[in-house]
Structures are given as C-alpha cells and as structure tokens.
Amino acid sequence: MLTDLPNVLTLSRIATIPALVALVALRRPWADLAACLLFTVAAITDYFDGVVARARRQQSDFGRMLDPIADKLLVGATLMMLVGQDRLSDFSLYPAIVIMLREILVSGLREYLASIRIGLPVTSLAKWKTGFQMAALGTLLAGDSAAELLGLGMLPIGFIGEIMLWIAAGLTLVTGWDYLTAGLHHASGPHVPPAGVRPAQPK
Description:
CATH class: Mainly Alpha
Number of strands: 0
Mean pLDDT: 83
Number of helices: 6
Shape: globular
Strand content: under 5%
C-alpha cells in the first residue's frame, strides 16, 4: 500500500517540508527560488496522485486519509515560515489566519463525519481554492528577491502573491461555509451509529 505510486507521491509532499523550511530560513535569493520550485513540484503531486490513483485503480482509505493531511502540513508549514520570516505584510496576515482556521475547521468536520460513516466530498470550488492557494504560496516563497535574481526586479512578485493570497482566502471562506453547513446538517439530523459502537450515555 505504501509503495503504490499515488501514496508515494503523497508522502513526497510531506518529505519536502523539512527541506522547504530550511530553504526559507536561509533568506537568500537562490534559496527563495529553490523553495518556490520545490513547493511547486510538491503542489503538482497533489494533482497527480489523484489522477494516478484513479487511472491505476489504486484508490484506498489510506490514500484518502493521507492526502488531506499532506496538503495541510505543507500549507501550514509554508504559511508559518512566511509569517515567521516577515515575508508577509501586516495586511496579508489576515488571509493567512483565515486559511489556517479553515483547514482546522474542515479537519474537525471530517473527523466527526467519519465517525458516523459520512464522507465530506471535495467540491469544484474547493479545487479552485486549492489551486489559487498553492499558486499564491509559491509566488510568495519566490518573492521579490528571487525576481531580482532572475532579472525580473521590475515585477512586484511579493505584492502579486499577496493579492492571490487574498483571493484564496475569499474562496476559503466560501468553501469553508459550504463544508460547515453540510457538517451541521448531518450533525443535527438523526443518524445510526456504526456497528459495534454504542452511543454515548448522558451524564
């Protein structure tokens, strides 16, 4: 199971996190460019692991569990490094907070719904959100220093990345609300507990 290509691709996203953190911590133009490229490759695997799993019929519960975990670890580590290294303006700290809170919210909803055997499907808008979010973070990792290294100093790369982060945060709010209402709908309705699981007794 672990050696299936989709799971290897997913695990590779987790494996890139220490290297990504180290590159950002160096605070060098070449390191910023390398961090951007590494993050971009990791983000691309997020698309291909699902494609490969469906093509090879290697979809599994393990893969479905691991995929969102890898995404949240990668996004969370990147956001924390950008904030910790003062790579975000004060104004762009707010969309970063929104994105982090949404990830925690969805994780909690998925955990609860999984306990009552209900899945939380990924919507098309959520996929667009992920695409914008990954593009924004990759752009912010490159920043103005990498742009100057490539002779593109006239482009406000950091500012462009922050605008994209705000767009991603807007999509995050919409999809987060959709997931929350879906979760509340299931939580408020009657459901049968899984076989072998006794309902909690009132205290």
